[in-house]
Write a structure and sequence with these properties.
single chain; 30% strand; 10 helices; 35% helix; Dna Ligase, domain 1; alpha/beta
Length: 366
């Protein structure tokens, strides 16, 4: 596919599909199609395909209704059957690097090599105290059968998967803050930013420093836990509870967009706040672990995206819980022109849900 040709990124979540079609270079993308559609329960769970046939049928319908052109797309994956490791290697050529990585993988990655898809990316190079050069390499191993389920679902939809990438890397491409000129080439020169994509069933966390992923983690908790807590507490239907997540949400300074009595609002806040405590603890533990590795840069800002980022007052709640600057990220930062059927205000309102899909469509810009 041409570097500046049309590209489609598809983000398959537990409760919805999001897709974007873009054209152009990263410095000025044109968005030509965008769609988000709810998924029936039981097709995707904790980042893995559960029902290939049903997901294929949903994806086929989604593609047609969304107005996407062609039959090629890129998909993102994130689950516990993917292992990410960072290792140091001496400066060797590409062929020797592949062999060295496969050798190291046998020792440090808990997936048999014959059952894994292995890939790597050189993050940085440096010089040791004795003057020798070394390179920091990020290694990704994914279970082959798990990846095959995604490819098969796309095939049943009549689509060809031209690329599968970690959702964390897609998030980096769409959400990572631009690298300041004074920080280029200086590994410790910039503050670290935590990018957190809160899905319905899982959450992706990646720490970016100078546009380089320093740490990634998948957490098997998403905004669906809030909805389920309210459903259980009030005996509500899923759709009604999800609307209250968006319109009432967590306790905070943004007043509810709902005509409810004060006592009812306080009750809903309490249920959501209590349910969110465990999630905040998971994020805190991830950040503490990253800092325990004595990195050159400490996390100063946390940028949210995903369906969970649309939860009312979530930035304020997590900011107070984590004692960090927490705000919404800007997945549209590379989009110069919106030629989709979606009005610009509506696009901006739903943009947090599009972060991974946009990053997947940016893959060819690397």
């Amino acid at each position: 596919m041409a570097k500046n040709g049309t590209r489609v990124g598809i983000d398959l979540e537990q409760s919805s599909i999001a897709g974007v079609q873009v054209k152009g270079a990263r410095q000025g993308l044109t968005l030509s199609a965008v769609a988000v559609r709810a998924l029936p329960a039981g097709l995707v769970f904790e980042g893995e395909v559960v029902d290939v046939d049903a997901l294929g049928a949903e994806l086929k319908s989604f593609w047609k209704e969304g107005g996407f052109t062609g039959k090629r797309c890129s998909l993102g994956v994130a689950n516990q059957k993917i292992v990410v490791r960072t290792m140091d290697f001496p400066m060797i050529d590409a062929k020797e690097m592949r062999s060295a990585i496969e050798f190291q993988a046998q020792e440090s990655i808990p997936i048999p090599l014959q059952d894994a898809i292995l890939d790597y990316q050189v993050l940085s190079t440096s010089t040791t105290e004795d003057g020798s050069a070394k390179q920091k390499v990020l290694i990704v191993a994914a279970q082959r059968d798990m990846i095959a389920q995604f490819v098969e679902a796309a095939r049943k939809a009549g689509l060809t998967v031209e690329g599968i990438d970690l959702q964390a890397f897609a998030l980096m491409r769409s959400m990572a803050p631009p690298v300041a000129f004074v920080d280029q080439g200086a590994p410790g020169g910039a503050e670290a930013t935590a990018l957190v994509n809160i899905g319905s069933g899982i959450t992706n966390l990646v720490v970016a420093v100078n546009d380089v992923p320093e740490f990634t983690r998948v957490i098997n908790v998403g905004c669906e836990s809030l909805v389920e807590a309210l459903m259980a507490h009030r005996g509500m239907q899923h759709g009604d509870a999800d609307i209250l997540r968006l319109n009432v949400g967590l306790s905070g300074s943004d007043a509810p967009v709902a005509d409810l009595e004060a006592g009812t609002v306080a009750e809903i806040h309490e249920v959501f706040d209590t349910s969110c405590e465990g999630f905040a603890d998971e994020i805190r533990r991830s950040i503490d672990y990253y800092h325990s590795q004595e990195p050159a840069s400490r996390i100063a800002t946390l940028l949210l995206s995903g369906e969970g980022a649309l939860t009312r007052n979530v930035c304020e709640y997590l900011g107070q819980a984590l004692h960090l600057d927490v705000r919404l990220g800007n997945p549209l930062q590379h989009v110069l022109e919106n030629k989709s059927k979606l009005a610009q205000p509506d696009l901006e309102a739903m943009s947090p849900r599009l972060a991974v899909a946009l990053g997947l469509a940016l893959e060819d810009e690397e």
